Structure prediction request, 108 residues.
Amino acid sequence: MLPYAGLNATIALSILIGLILSSAFSAIVVYAQELMPGRVGTVAGLFFGFSFGMGGLGAAVLGELADHTSIEFVYHVCAYLPAIGLLTAFLPNLRDIKTADTAPSPKT
Prediction:
């Protein structure tokens, strides 16, 4: 929706997008910490370092793409990037894993 919005709507959408992204980051870190209990600091440091590094690489790649095409093209490409979030449907359900680990084994 962002590439097709006017100036005032772009400002409002940018604020909304920023809030959504910042709220999701803490949930991602907590999810990763549950996957590696006892390594809370390591996981948090890895995610902060990885996210800043990927942000820098993404900015460089998008800048290069803008140099070869146009800024409007990059703006339209970025409008579809949130669809990558649909891949979270393939993440494992930790509740099912924990209940399977704690369930008593059937007697044979």
About this structure: The mean pLDDT is 81. Helices lie at 7-35, 40-68, 71-79, 94-102. The chain has four helices and no strands.
